[in-house]
Structures are given as C-alpha cells and as structure tokens.
Amino acid sequence: MLSENGNFVKVAALSEVADGKPRAVRVEGHSIALFQHEGAVYATDNQCPHMGYPLVRGRVRKGVLSCDWHGWSYDMEGGGCFTGGCDDLATFPVEVRDGDIYIDVANGGKKRDDAHFLLLKEGLLSHDSWTLSKAIAIMLARGVSEDETLEIMVKHMVRHISTSEGGGGSLSMMMNGLKVAHMYEPEDRLIPLMMSATGAAGTLGDRPDRQPLPPPIDWEKLENWIRVFTADKEWEGIEKCLITARQLGGHDEKIIPLFFQCAVESFFLNHSDNLIHLSHLAELQAQFGWELTGELVCSLGAKILGQGRGRPGELHREAIQKLGEIDHIFDELPQGTSAESAADYDEDKFSAALVSGDLDEVFDAVTEMLTAGVPINTLATTMVMTAGDRMARTPVNMSPGWWDLQEEMELGYTVRKVLRYGGTKVAAKALYHAAWRFFNNRWLNIRHQPITASRASTTPIELDEDAAITEILDGIESVRIQEIGRRTREYLNAGGSAERLMAEMGLCILKDDRGDNLLSSINIVSEEWKTCESHPARNQLIVGLARWATDIRRNAGNDSAVQTAHRFARGETATELYE
Description:
globular, 579 residues, Rieske Iron-sulfur Protein, 21 helices
C-alpha cells in the first residue's frame, strides 16, 4: 500500500540493495544506510552514533545491526541502542514502490529529545572523555546554555565527591578547566570544558542524611569544635558542625574564612595542597552559590581539614617550632590588600632567600618582609616569578622537578586567593606554607639569578610572528625540549604577542595532554602574566610553561575526541572518509 505522505523520496532501486550487501545513499546532505534483511528493507543513519563509523560496513543478525569498529549494536527498525544508554540510531520510514525504495527523512531521525542530557549523565558516570566531549558539543549546538551545562556538571560533582573519598584534585581540575575554557572563544572551548567535566565525573554513591546537632548550639561553640576536630583529624565531626551551622542560618559567610584559618595551622605545613583545594572550593561557592554547592562545601571542606597526617620529620618539626615562635607577629600586621610594594623592598634578596636551601634563611626572609610592611601580594608576585624563572631554566638532562616547580608557582598564586577569602593574617601565614615548598625543593639543581634584571634583547630582531609561532608549536609537538625555551624567549624578546602565543600554545598543549597540572599551569601563567604586567621576569612564565609541556608531552587523543564531538554536533558524518 502506497503512502500518501509527500515527504517520501526515491533513493535507490530495490535491485541495488541485495540481502547482505547494504548500500549508502546521500539524501539531503545525510548519508543513509539501506539494508535488505529477511525480506524487509530498512533505512538508518549510516553514521554509528558512537564514533561515526559507517554502518554499511557493519553486520546484521536477526534485526540487530552491529558496528564493526567498536561493536555497538542497534535495533535496525526502532533504532534502540543495546550498548550505550542513550546513543540510539536514527531510523527512517521505508516504502517499496514498483521496485524502487522510498524513504521519509523528515519523519525519521533521533528517538530521544533528551538524548544529549542522558549522554552527559552517562559520561559523568563513566568518566569517559569521548562521551563527555560529544555530550557537551551536542548540548551547546542545540542551544543548551553553557551555564545550564555547567550546573549539571556541578550537581553531579557535588554528589560524587560528597559520597566518595577525597575529591580536592577533582575539584581543582574542574575549576581550572572552566577558567581555561573562558580564555577562548566558544568554538575553541570544548577541550578544557571536557577536561572540566572529567574532573566532575565519577560514580554516585549514597549515605545516610547528615542531621544537624540538637540545640542548644551557637556559632561560637561550632567554630571551637571545628578547630578541635581539625587538630584531632576527625573530619566527620567537622562536617557535622558545618551542617549544623548552615541549619542555624546566618553564618554561611563565616565558613570559608574559617577553612583558611584552620588550613594555615603549622601542623598542615606539609599539606599545602589544602590551600589550593580550598581556594577552588571558595571560588566554586562564589560562582554557583550555597544552594547548589552547600553539600560539597561541608563535605569536602571537612575532608580536607580532617585528613590524616603522618608524623613530621626532623626538619618539619623544626619548621613547626619556628612558626610557633613568631606567632605573635601576625596580630601586629597592617590590614589591607594593597599590591603596591614598599619603596625599599629588595626583591632579588627575598627571591635568593627562598631558594637558599636554609630553613632559617627562608623563614626569616618572610618574617623580615612582613614586619617591614611589604604587602602580601608583592611577596606572592616574587614567589610566582621565582618559580617561573626556575621552570624556564631548570636542566632537563636529569630529573627536572617539573611538578615541584609547578607547585611553587601555584602556591604563590594561591596566596592571593587566601588573602581574598581569608584576610591579611591568614594570608601571611600562608606565605610560610608556600616558602616551605621552596625549601623542600632545595634538591633542585637550579642556580639562582636575579629576577629583576631586564630580559629584553639589546639587539633588534626582525620577527615573522606567524612563522615564529608555527616553529614554537611544532617544537612542542615534536618534543624538541632543548630548543623550545630559546625559541619562545626569542619570540617574546622580539616583541611578539604574548597573548596570542599563550592562547595558541594552550590549545596545542591540551589537544594531546589530559594532565590537570598543565591545565592549572596554563591558567596560572595566563592570569599571572597579566597581574604582573610590569615585572621584568614575567616572560619567563611562558618560557617555563613551553619547556614543561614539551618535556612531558603525552599523546592522549583529546583532539580526536573533540573533533569527533564537533562533527556530531554539526550533523556531519565520518562516512565521507569511506564513501
């Protein structure tokens, strides 16, 4: 019986599609697969919803169509996917008229209007970057706002971290991914957004509801108990107090500052990651609000402060003792967050002390600068620039200590956030935690040099900016570590655009590396290069990033994942490669 639907179009003769010999046809720009199987004719999208392989190269058995690449299987008639949770196959109505095959493209297609939401959920649960890339690309292409997409990711991460162990590293990856994504135009954001989603991903567990403590309770009691449980390494007690504080109401604004007050206690001296993770937690809460993040703030904040701590070694105990001896100075520090340096500040002297390898010299230098009134932001700048300069010059013929140097830089950068969320006294204590990281890196074989000396070339250099950037990116991709620093330095000294280089270098790095440390460094270098606009050593941040990214380059396939995702989102097919 012939259909009266005017949307049917002739696509092939029945004789051209034999049983076991499917054929691909192109209809309205789409590649359609035609099958004759067990006396019936079927029409499906020729692109496998998983990774885009042409389904005419697949297998058909009892109405089940299987892709030959990864083995995903589909119901040929209804399109239902047996392998994935929501990657159903587009199928189309078919009629055979007078020996010809007609299909109705307009009334066929996708089976689930919410498939992209289900796909994102599947990716977040499976931790699969390919699925996450595809889901995010499709959602943005279909008009789902980036804010709505991020809110789904945050909701998932809140529940995942709240019902699992740890989570600080996952939170950091998510927040750094969001920041790096917003360095780029929307069409270039997919890799960092995918990495951000990977940070949010994980299984969802369950646990009993945490009930607040019964009255009479007030904030003063809860604050004291949180400090006690922090010292005693009892994270569940901290969480109970935080939940109670939120239930009381009126104390939310005190919670984040209290976290930082606890995190700079001397017994956390070997756990400086706490400051990094708490700064990301503070930023998450500020961006998404208490309603969305409250459970995570209470859970992760408690886990960070109440974590187990090993017995301190001899030098660690000595450092803790020194901090106890100078505790009185913190109440005497001037309040404020001015970034203007004291007129007599000797930055090179402070930088040299940081890398001296002598604990007394390191801590005494911080104390001297604080009591002299040098602003905390100024000292943070010196730490960041010292770390960046060391990264730009560290030998690579043996262990270069990239991760240790990156943590020096990140802790200096984090001091600024501690100042923002915790105030002057807390940020001053955080400086010693950052300085301790420099002291711990005394094993690195990097000769100190003044960071205030001009790095600009005195000889004019003609620059072909396009060619120079191409050479730098090629050096990163081909792992030419011995020359990448020199090429990057020459480009910057010749007046090349640092902003353009950082943007293109970031995409080059991320397309083949999933390391959250590099993601963090791209963000830090970008922000600190702007913050320290007048500093003579700021180009060393970019040189150091280029050298590190080159030396630890991994072929992780991010670019393949996002290119496939963009293709799906645009409705394009991979089948053109095979047809």
